[in-house]
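User: quick one, sequence for these tokens?
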């Protein structure tokens, strides 16, 4: 703006000659002085005294003084020369008025108006809608409100003069203008430019102007936008300061008011910034595909619906995006996993946006599969785990090159500078694995002498169906699996199954219409340790399986590692959650433990002491289950009538489903050590009954130390008792059928009575198959129908070898005259049935015992 000071100075200089000429004329007039002369002098003093001291005041005072002098001169001239000087005075007056008006409107008014406008103007944008995309920016429909409020002006004089001036002007018109937009908190660069067309506005006080125009919005620097967007998405943005600077050419009517600068600032709260709208993925399928570059890869077809509460009416050209995920830590670079392309999209005002896109996974980056430092998981493991659990994970979308060359470059530049985090939830698969089953189950009990085998082991064929989400429809080939599983029963943890060794596996998709679909995974587990953590619960489980004849359903909760091959590459997924139900059929089938049908034969004595005997025997039994087992060592108590008489052990045996024969059992008969004198008495009674042909049974009972390396398992099995009959004499070679009334072989198979020599010989069947039994003493009585026949007492030992043998002639003291003896004599040359009662001393090796014997239906031949 031109400074008015020089003009004022110039005006003062130009006045001086006129003043001097006037004073010269006045001095001439003094000669013709009249009474009016002093009045002129007084008027000049008043003008000077009444004007202000500023430059504008001096100019105005000088001009008025000069005009007054001219008028005074004209008056005097009119008196002297009437009718000749007044046109000059009028012309001079008009000239001065025009000059003053020019000075005021050119220099003074703009200054006043600029200050008034900068304080009084109220600018409020109301609506911004995008009309179309251009190569340089966006055409937008802009609506805003403009008014002048004089109450906002601080200086009284400016406020009044501005109000008067705008009332006179009424309307102003701007030319085409440019508005530069800044984000002061993120640098001084211009982030965008708005080109506004000419507008007209009523500038009178409190008049509201609602203006609608089409503006061209041009993006500029992207770095401030990137910084602001990053702070917003991180939740660090509380307010946004926006500043706009506009240079506007203004005129009012024919008066050009020059270029005016308007600065507009506003602080916007983060809560007023539109949030990322919630979206709904209506369709998502990932499948194998031939990529555009000719290679094989994965393709994702996505459709989503996004609510649009804004009056936008815009067509967006095809866009390209990069899909990224987090690395091991927030400080690591994000990992690009896929390219995505969005089809052209039309946005209608206040209508849901339906977007369709396609993504391509060309390769799986190594950084996505590498195990993170200090962890056992990779970024891919964490993503998959969150997806399966339905937890919220985050993917990042960043703009990239567009697939369409007609897409404006400024869009890709802008989008590539902004990374938008998109929360994403998986389907929350409750039952990832169904139809979990174990076949050919083999249990291996721990070896008590091993330093490494601490837990029972399970080997089995595992078959499971993995419920893959419907969205995943690409090739998956599982090659190896391993897992760490918790085993639950009745909603309590029973134990842990450790499958940390990689197990070979295979898989195939189920595509049969009759099948429910999914991925069938088959694997053989070899030697997986099973650790029992709740002994009481395990005891209840065993009781349920053995005695209640109920199927037990075990729940397995596992984290699984999988080695698999896809179209892109082979990869390893870790800590996948898996669960399943494994039914265990009851072991006690049919008639309970009778279905085991245990049998013992080929009893051999291997060692003796004065109080104990060690046997080796061959056992046969039936395994009614489908399970097999390896038993390195197992000890069981031998119980009769609740009294422990000894132990039986097995070592390194294999138990298979069905018949199991010739199982070597080592048994120790040691009643005194196990149960003292009571045990010794019960033992004598058992042997006596056994040799006498009574139906005797032995009970086998597990105990805490049945499995020495795992006493808790033995404790759980301590209520298990198996009762089976003692071996019969029929197992002895050549025993044949006895002559007893029951038709079974007995210890005394038969006898021959020699009347003349008063002796008798006995045919004996030994219960032992390879060891000689010695009879050390006999004190016996023979009866015929309850009548005594004779008495035998013999104190010289004789041997009873395995099988059938005959005793030496033993002396008999006949009970002459008795009914029994008469019956014997009458049977001379024939035979009759006798029974006997005896106390017999027996010895095997160093062991010796005094027992009783009762025999019925003994076939006795009578000879002279």
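Assistant:
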């Amino acid at each position: 703006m031109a400074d008015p000071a020089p003009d004022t100075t110039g005006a003062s200089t130009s006045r001086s000659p006129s003043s001097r000429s006037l004073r010269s004329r006045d001095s001439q007039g003094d000669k013709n002085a009249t009474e009016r002369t002093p009045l002129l002098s007084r008027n000049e003093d008043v003008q000077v005294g009444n004007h202000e001291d500023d430059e504008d005041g001096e100019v105005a005072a000088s001009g008025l003084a000069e005009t007054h002098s001219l008028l005074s001169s004209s008056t005097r001239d009119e008196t002297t020369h009437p009718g000749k000087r007044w046109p000059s005075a009028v012309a001079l007056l008009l000239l001065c008025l025009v000059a003053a008006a020019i000075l005021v409107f050119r220099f003074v008014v703009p200054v006043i108006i600029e200050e008034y406008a900068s304080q009084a103007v109220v600018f409020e944008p109301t609506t911004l809608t995008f009309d179309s995309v251009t190569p340089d920016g966006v055409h937008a429909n802009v609506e805003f409100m403009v008014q002048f409020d004089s109450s906002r002006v601080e200086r009284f004089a400016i406020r009044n003069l501005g109000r008067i001036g705008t009332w006179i002007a009424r309307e102003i018109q701007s030319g085409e203008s440019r508005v530069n937009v800044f984000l002061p908190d993120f640098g001084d660069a211009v982030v965008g430019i708005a080109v506004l067309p000419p507008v007209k506005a009523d500038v009178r006080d409190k008049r509201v102007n609602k203006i609608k125009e089409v503006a061209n919005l041009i993006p500029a620097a992207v770095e401030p936008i990137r910084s602001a967007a990053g702070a917003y998405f991180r939740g660090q943005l509380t307010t946004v300061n926006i500043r706009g600077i506009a240079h506007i050419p203004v005129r009012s009517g024919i008066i050009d008011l020059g270029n005016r600068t308007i600065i507009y600032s506003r602080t916007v709260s983060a809560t007023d910034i539109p949030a990322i709208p919630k979206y709904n993925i209506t369709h998502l399928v990932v499948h194998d595909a031939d990529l555009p570059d000719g290679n094989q890869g994965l393709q994702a077809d996505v459709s989503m619906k996004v609510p649009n509460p804004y009056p936008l009416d815009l067509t967006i050209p095809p866009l390209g995006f990069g899909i990224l995920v987090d690395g091991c830590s927030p400080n690591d670079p994000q990992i690009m996993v896929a390219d995505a392309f969005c089809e052209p999209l039309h946005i209608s005002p206040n209508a849901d946006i339906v977007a369709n896109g396609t993504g391509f996974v060309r390769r799986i980056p190594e950084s996505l599969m590498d195990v993170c430092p200090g962890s056992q998981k990779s970024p891919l493991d964490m993503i998959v785990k969150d997806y399966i659990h339905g937890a919220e994970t985050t993917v990042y979308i960043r703009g990239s090159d567009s697939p369409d060359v007609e897409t404006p470059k400024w869009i890709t530049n802008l989008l590539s500078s902004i990374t938008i985090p998109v929360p994403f939830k998986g389907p929350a698969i409750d039952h990832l694995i169904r139809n979990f089953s174990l076949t050919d189950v083999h249990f291996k009990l721990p070896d008590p002498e091993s330093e490494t085998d601490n837990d029972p082991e399970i080997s089995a064929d595992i078959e499971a169906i993995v419920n893959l989400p419907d969205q995943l429809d690409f090739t998956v080939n599982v090659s190896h699996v391993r897992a760490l599983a918790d085993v639950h029963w009745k909603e309590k943890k029973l134990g842990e199954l450790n499958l940390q060794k990689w197990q070979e596996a295979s898989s195939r998709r189920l595509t049969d219409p009759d099948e429910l679909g999914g991925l069938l995974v088959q694997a053989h587990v070899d030697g997986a340790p099973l650790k029992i953590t709740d002994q009481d619960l395990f005891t209840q489980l065993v009781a349920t399986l053995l005695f209640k004849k109920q199927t037990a359903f075990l729940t397995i909760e596992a984290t699984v590692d999988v080695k698999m091959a896809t179209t892109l590459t082979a990869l390893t997924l870790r800590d996948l959650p898996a669960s399943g139900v494994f039914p265990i059929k009851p072991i006690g089938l049919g008639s309970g433990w009778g279905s085991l049908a245990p049998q013992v034969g080929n009893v051999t004595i291997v060692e003796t002491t004065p109080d104990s005997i060690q046997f080796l025997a061959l056992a046969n039994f039936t395994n009614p289950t489908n399970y097999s087992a390896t038993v390195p060592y197992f000890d069981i108590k031998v119980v009769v009538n609740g009294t422990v008489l000894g132990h039986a052990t097995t070592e390194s045996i294999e138990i298979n489903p069905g018949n199991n024969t010739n199982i070597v059992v080592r048994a120790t008969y040691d009643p005194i050590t196990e149960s003292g004198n009571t045990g010794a008495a019960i033992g004598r009674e058992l042997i006596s009954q056994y040799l006498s042909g009574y139906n005797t049974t032995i009970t086998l009972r597990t105990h805490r130390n049945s499995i020495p390396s795992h006493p808790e398992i033995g404790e759980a099995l301590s209520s298990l008792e198996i009762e089976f009959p003692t071996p019969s004499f029929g197992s002895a070679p050549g025993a044949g059928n006895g002559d007893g009334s029951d038709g079974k072989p007995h210890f005394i198979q038969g006898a021959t009575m020699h009347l003349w020599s008063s002796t008798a010989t006995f045919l004996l069947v030994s219960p032992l198959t390879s060891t000689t039994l010695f009879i050390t003493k006999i004190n016996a009585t023979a009866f015929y129908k309850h009548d005594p026949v004779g008495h035998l007492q013999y104190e010289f030992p004789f041997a009873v070898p395995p099988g059938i043998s005959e005793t030496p002639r033993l002396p008999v003291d006949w009970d002459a005259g008795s009914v029994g003896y008469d019956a014997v004599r009458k049977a001379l040359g024939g035979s009759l049935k006798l029974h006997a009662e005896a106390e017999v001393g027996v010895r095997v090796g160093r062991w010796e015992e005094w027992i009783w014997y009762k025999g019925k239906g003994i076939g006795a031949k009578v000879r002279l």
